Every structure is written in structure tokens, then in C-alpha cells.
Amino acid sequence: MIAVIDYKAGNLTSVMKAVRAVGAEAVATSDPDVVMRADKLVLPGVGHFSATTFLEERGLRPAIEERVGAGIPFLGICVGLQWLFAGSTEAPHTAGLNAFAGRCERFAEGIKVPHVGWNSIQVSESRLLQGISSGAFVFFTHSYRAPIVNGTVAVTEYGLPFTAAVERDNIMGVQFHPEKSGAVGLQILENFVRLP
Amino acid sequence: MSLTKRIIACLDVNAGRVVKGVQFVDIIDAGDPAELARRHAEAGTDEIVLLDITATHEGRGTLVDAVKRTAEQLFIPFTVGGGIRTVEDAAAIFDAGADKVSINSAAIARPELIEEIGRRFGAQAVVIAIDARRAHGATQPVIDAEVFVNGGRKPAGRKALEWAKEAESRGAGEILLTSMDADGTRTGFDCELTARVSDAVQIPVIASGGAGTADHFADVLLEGKADAALAASIFHFGIANVRELKEAIARRGVPVRLPC
After folding, report:
1. A78 annotated active-site
2. B53/B102 Cα distance (integer angstroms)
3. How far apart are CA B3 and CA A119, in angstroms?
């Protein structure tokens, strides 16, 4: 069972629909006990980085840390990817998971923000992005971007290059919205749900 | 790698049925928004907007059921507009599977609605639709372009540029700008008005009204400085195959999602 973590940031409908469309059983939950029983975790989310404080308030963070530590696959989407980093200048006092070093920052002045629309990604070796070619288009909508780090497996460019996807062992994240990226996005979600 | 310009198909819906004709020859039910949206997505359209065109003046709510059925098999961005007046109205549309709501008259009547929806669902989920007409007879007809509400029937007493800036400052994620002068003419978008609005705000601007040819799209995405262009009837009547349209505007130097 895949637990899609509901931390009241935006709506989960699209993610639930897409995960089910690729054949997985998914439940939306804010309950740490359900997280503890899940064999995969998805942390979706659009909106403000500070919304992730909900994870602390509800005791979800320790449950996620324990399950991720036990090696189950974890996929963060959009703010869910940003939460894998140390933090974000959007909410300086809210700590991320710190699985990847560095902080997310707002796009620089001089370009339109948010970065909304279809942009292409440059892909390197990755289980999550298996079968996805460099140049594939995916849908983004965000105002803050994650730095390029050791675990970066896809890069895109808007103003400057930034991380479109990260992966280290069982910890994965995508800045774009696979649930809104047509066939390419569904392929990525299918890769995730088929991970052992 | 660069952000592509979006081609958006608009489905005008009345009582849960798409109006304005047929766009795919082999379609089973030309009036079903769910089937039309799915076909548009398969054809390479970047985004779908479903607009309940009769909602405001007849006081009808947006058709949640049509939204739900349309969202069920749609895995590209999906915006719904028409008759959304409160956060609760918007919540019902998001629950039904929409990614963004488009607000027009209700935001003019009560601009705080932009903040209220943005706080709960994120700024990216709030599209402010502006129906604007050039101020004919004024010395600066474009700069002084006026906003109309209730499906273009009533002047709002606001200037389009000022309203766009206010919407942005209140946290709108995008502007959907329809030129009432150009709408329905198929003689091209109002590039001058679109460029003015696009320059006035930092958020993306979707141009609407006047699409007739591929060149019109290229014009508004280049000279008009639009981030996306929307059309309805050009797709409905089978004039534009989305892929061919994108190939044509790519030849003009516009970055688009191809292959799609």
C-alpha cells in the first residue's frame, strides 16, 4: 500500500488519481500509524514550504524518518522534493529533512515567477527516471528552486539550472508534477510504484 | 532547455455539455467535456480550461460533476472557471479534480477572494480572468482598456492594467486576458494589449480571443509577450490540429512542447 501524505497543502486528488491510474493501491493519510504500515510513501504538495510544519505537529516526521530509514521508497513532489533539502528561504525557520544538502531559494529577479509550464529535463542514471530521455517535457509550477547536489538525477533550466529530480537509494523527489505531465509523468509514477 | 509557451484548449460548457460544435471527426459524443478534454490531451494540447459560460448571469453553480468526470482521465493541468464566488465553491472544484480555478466577476466584486483561495490552495491555483476592451475614443485606448464582468455584459469601472497589477499583488498565480475586441473575430489576438499587461506584471499571462491561424498564436507569443495562448472555436471547428499548430509556431521561433 502507498501512503500519500496529506499535510493540507493543496489538494491530493490529482496525485491519488495518477497513482491509481498506474495500478497502485493508495490511501491519503495524515496518520503516523498508517505511514508506519505503508510500503511506499508519497509526499505531494503545492503551496508554501511552511506547510510542512504540519508534519512535525502531527508526528508524521518521525514516522517518515523511521520508514525511510528502514529503506522503503519515498517520493517527494514539488514542495515534497524541497522538503528533502535542509530548508527553504521561503520559510527560514522551518527545517526540511536534510537528506540532501543545501537550501531552496526563490528564482532570481528578472524572470516571471512562478515558473509555470512545460520544461525539458536533462536526465542521468536513475531508477525513478528509467526510460525517460533527456529532452522529455514535464510540467512545473513553483516559485522556489532546489540547488544541484550530489543526488541530482535531472536538471532543468529557468534563468539558471536547478534540480528537477533527486535520487539516493530509496529517497527520491521531483520538482515537477508527474501527475500533470501526461504520459511521461505516468511513466515516472509507474517506475516508482514498481520499485521493490 | 527552456520553458515552453503553452497552447491551451478551452471547452465552453453549458449545462455540463460542451457547446460550439465538433472538433474530432471520429468522436463518439461531441458534447462530452470528459471525452473532448482527453482527446485534446492526446493530441498534444498543453492545458485544458473548462469554462461554464452561463454560470454567472444565470446564477448557476459550476457543474462539479462534469469537472469530476473530466478530471478522472486527464493527466495534464486542468483549470475550471465560471460561477466560482467563494472559497467553498473553489474547494468543491478542487475536490472534483481541478488544479486551478479561474475567477472573473467574483474577484472584481470582492478582491479578497484571491487571497482567500490562494492561502488555502496556493497562489499557483488561482487564475484571474480579465475580459478587457480597448477604451475606444480615449487618447490611450490600450493603456486605458477597461474591464468587463458578467460575461462581458457589464463594465466593471476598472482599468485592465491596474486590475492585473492588483490581482498579482493579492497573490494571483496567472492572468487569463481575453480581448473582447478580438474575441470571436479570428483575425488575431490583441497583441498590443497583451504585451502591455504582460509587461505590467511578473506572473504569467495567458492570451485569449481572436485566434484564427498559427501565425496569430506566434504573434501573441512573440510580440504580445504572452506566456500561453488559449483558443476554443479554432479547435472546435477542426481548423487547428494542435501538433501542426505547434510545428508552425516553432518555425517562427517560439519554444513549444514537441514532440507532444
Report:
1. yes
2. 12
3. 5
Q: Report whether the peptide linkage leading into residue A114 is cis, meaning its omega lies within 30 degrees of zero.
A: yes
Nearest Cα of chain B lies from the Cα of A24 at a distance, in angstroms, of 16
Residues in chain A: 196
Taking CB atoms and an 8 Å cut-off, how many pairs form between chains A and B? 99
pTM score: 0.93
Taking the CA of residue B189 and the nearest CA in chain A, the distance in Å comes to: 21
Q: What is the DSSP letter of B125?
A: G
Domain with A123 in it: 2-193
- Report helix, strand or coil for A167: strand
In a domain, B256, yes or no: no
Tell me what ipTM this predicted complex has: 0.92
CA–CA distance, B227 with A164 (Å, rounded to integer): 21
On whether residue B137 sits in a domain, the answer given is: yes
Kindly determine whether residue A180 and residue B77, on different chains, have CB atoms separated by under 8 Å.
Answer: yes
Which chain B residues in 66-85 lie under 8 Å from chain A, judged by CB atoms?
71-73, 75-77
State pLDDT tens for residues A86-140: 999 999 999 999 999 999 999 998 899 899 999 999 999 999 999 999 999 999 9
Q: Is residue B1 part of a domain?
A: no
What total number of domains does chain B contain?
1
pLDDT digits (tens, 9 = 90+) for B128-166: 999 999 999 999 999 999 999 988 889 999 999 999 999
Q: Which of residues 123-182 of B touch A (CB under 8 A)?
A: 123-125, 173-174
